[in-house]
Design brief:
Blueprint lengths: L3 H12 L5 H18 L29 H31 L1 H13 L3 H40 L4 H11 L6 H16 L4 H26 L7 H15 L1 H20 L4 H7 L7 H10 L3 H14 L2 H22 L4 H25 L18 E5 L3 H16 L5 E2 L6 H8 L6 E6 L4 H15 L5 E5 L6 H8 L5 E3 L2 H23 L7 H4 L2 H18 L3 E6 L6 E2 L12 E2 L7 H8 L4 E3 L12 H4 L5 E8 L5 E9 L7 H21 L14
Length: 683
């Protein structure tokens, strides 16, 4: 009522001819429609009829006036219903809170079905996700309501603090809450301002806050808090609102979170996790294989480029490309892969490898020549032989790409290469190293046949057999293949590292034989090679373990040399730490025979007093000693994380294997016997 005159003036202004033409025409249209609705219909002219008979006067019965009790019942009744429901809810909630522990135990007993561990995980996961959602929702709502209140105060809307608080509370109602909260300030802006400026400012304020909150604040704060996809949230809001009305809209997100948790932990309800979750339901290798089956070369290249930009070409080949080829080979051997898709997969995969190789060469400062080497370098001859079919040939091309990144020349024989030509390449001592490439599921058969052919050819070069599979270890494959003289590897990155190490040893041996006896050994003149090898190993273990820091430390130096690899930031140069007086960790590493794993430093009695670890926030520590053949421990390879964690058997095996590779490189270069300089990685 205080703004009645202003509202009347605005209504009158809408009727004046001085308003904008659009509003004038709209007002005239409304007035005409109102006149047509209110005006009585035209009377029809009917012929004269005989006078109607006189009917008796109808009797009207009037209901008696309602009593005060009846009026109170009609007015207060609709109000008492919601209040009674709210009171019942409050009483039940208070009773549940007083007996929450007993109710929790009963719920666990009812839902566990003998699997107490699973039930506890379900409840903890649901509680964590719902609590995180409500907390983040409160933070988002506050970051929305406080600016709204301040903005309305600056605009001049009365009771701006009240409307900001109302916006904070109503935003707990998904989708509709913010606009319900906006109706009150918008109505006041119309009432208090004789003009239209405050209305325009109020509308702009709410629209701006919605855009900022939905696209910036919620994305930043929520992240993957609930794990529900945006489409699932929208569908869930519609479903629960249809089922329970406004209460369902308010509870839609917590209820959907509970369903998602059930879908992740209960085997029979896993379809809920697929339908509602925000995580990709297909692993990266399956996504890549799907693009193969869809015959989408652009999608294959985009996925490859994105993965390589985040990780590396070796990781892409080992974790995505090879598993996708394995799935294609399994379908092909089962007879379920169409001929045209087979042809597309093999042809497009070959083109993709060539494209990635060209991109890698373009990114290098000194691109390799046509032979895959920088000018002036000489490397031992390397021949890569596919075991049997096109998939093996594709894996061989991937290995050649990784070797060219390391400036190693490699020759790949095609599956169409005549046997005599292959014999000419590998017979006798013509090749320094031979690699057999085999992709499952027929890898074992093809690899055995290829090794027999090499023996018939009289090959005297070392042979590396690549069984490219993440499902088995190199030792298991060696036993299955019954190979004694050949070396078995299961990953392209591992094969490239072994070949690089062997190539370095061969080149160093050639340099040593050709150097004069009085000249310094070539092993000590090739300083960058161990550092390059160390850097490659450090980068690989950091990616596999997904830790922020991996390092190599040679214990006989005066200072610990730390070289850290961060997965999400540019690789930094060497950083020398100050000498530490607390050598407790080093003593344990040197004393161990195989591998030292500290899952949580703060809970391990051996290291709770180690200030070197505690001050740096180190929680997880795993390291393998670098032990020479004569039993001397010269250092260790380790991974470090700032959070407690566990490692599996494959990661342990990888860390041990990489430590073995490093010590072999150190012994080949003479570092383990020679005096160590201040910078061990340059020795």
């Amino acid at each position: 009522p205080d703004y009645e005159s202003t509202i009347r003036d605005k209504v009158q202004a809408l009727k004046t001819p001085h308003m904008p033409p659009v509003l004038t025409r709209a007002a005239q249209m409304v007035e005409k429609l109102r006149a047509d609705i209110v005006a009585p219909p035209p009377k029809k002219v009917e012929p004269e009829a005989p006078a109607p008979e006189v009917k008796p006067q109808p009797v009207e019965v009037h209901a008696p006036q309602p009593t005060p009790v009846q009026l109170a019942r009609e007015i207060i009744g609709p109000i008492l219903g919601p209040l009674a429901t709210g009171g019942i809810v409050i009483v039940v909630v208070v009773a549940m809170l007083f007996q929450r522990e007993d109710l929790r135990d009963r719920l666990i007993r009812l839902c566990s079905a003998g699997r107490l561990n699973v039930a506890i995980q379900v409840l903890d996961d649901a509680a964590r996700r719902v609590s995180r959602y409500l907390l983040m929702q409160l933070v988002v709502n506050a970051s929305y309501g406080i600016p709204v209140g301040l903005g309305l105060y600056l605009i001049g809307i009365p009771n701006a603090l009240l409307w900001g608080l109302l916006a904070t509370l109503l935003r707990f109602i998904p989708f509709l809450g913010p606009w319900i909260a906006a109706l009150f300030p918008i109505a006041l802006a119309v009432a208090v301002d004789p003009g239209w400026t405050k209305l325009a400012y109020t509308l702009a304020l709410f629209v701006l806050m919605e855009v900022v909150s939905n696209n910036i604040i919620e994305v930043w704060l929520y992240g993957s808090g609930t794990g529900i996809s945006s489409v699932a949230l929208l569908v869930a809001a519609v479903f629960w609102t249809w089922l329970w009305g406004p209460a369902g809209l308010f509870l839609s997100t917590p209820l959907t979170v509970c369903l998602l948790v059930l879908g992740r932990h209960v085997p029979g309800l896993k379809f809920l996790g697929v339908l509602l979750g925000s995580e990709p339901v297909l692993p990266p290798d399956a996504q890549f294989y799907q693009r193969m089956l869809s015959m989408d070369p652009e999608g294959m290249l985009d996925l490859a480029s994105k993965f390589i930009s985040e990780r590396s070409a070796a990781a892409f080949y080992d974790e995505i490309f090879i598993p996708a080829l394995t799935m294609a080979e399994a379908d092909r051997h089962a007879g379920t892969l169409a001929e045209r898709r087979q042809k597309f997969i093999f042809e497009t995969s070959r083109e993709l490898i060539e494209e990635l190789e060209r991109q890698g060469s373009a990114d290098e400062e000194t691109p390799p020549d046509a032979a895959g080497m920088t000018s002036g370098e000489q490397r031992p001859a390397l021949v890569i032989i596919p075991a049997s079919d096109d998939a093996d040939e594709l894996a061989a091309l991937m290995l050649r790409h990784l070797l060219r990144e390391r400036r190693i020349q490699a020759t790949v024989t095609m599956i169409t290469t005549p046997p005599d030509d292959t014999r000419a390449l590998v017979a006798g001592d013509r090749a320094e190293l031979v690699v057999v490439s085999a992709v499952p599921p027929a890898a074992a058969i093809g690899a055995r046949r290829a090794c027999r052919r090499l023996r018939r050819y009289g090959t005297r070069a070392p042979v590396i057999v690549g069984i490219w599979s993440r499902e088995t270890t190199a030792a298991e494959s060696q036993i299955r293949l019954q190979l004694t003289t050949e070396t078995v590897v299961t990953q392209l990155a591992d094969a490239a590292l072994r070949i690089e190490r062997q190539s370095e040893a061969e080149v160093s041996a050639v340099d040593a034989r050709s150097a004069p006896e009085t000249a310094p050994s070539a092993l000590h003149r090739r300083e960058p090679e161990p550092a390059m090898l160390f850097d490659s190993v450090i980068r690989e273990v950091a990616q596999v373990f997904e830790v922020p820091v991996a390092l190599v430390n040679l214990v006989e130096t005066d200072q610990a040399f730390w070289r850290a690899h961060a997965a999400h930031r540019p690789r930094e140069g060497p950083v020398h730490s100050e000498p530490t007086e607390d050598l407790l960790l080093r003593d344990h590493v040197v004393a161990t025979d195989t591998l030292l794993v500290v899952e949580d430093v703060t809970k391990d009695r051996r290291f709770t007093s180690d200030s070197f670890l505690i001050e740096r926030g180190i929680r997880f520590y795993a390291c393998a000693p670098l032990r020479t053949q004569n039993g001397l421990t010269v250092g260790y390879l380790c991974v470090v994380d700032t959070r407690a964690r566990q490692i599996n058997d494959q990661q342990e095996a990888l860390l041990k294997q990489r430590a073995t590779d490093l010590i072999a490189a150190l012994e080949a270069s003479g570092t383990s016997q020679a005096p160590l300089p201040a910078d061990p990685l340059s020795s």
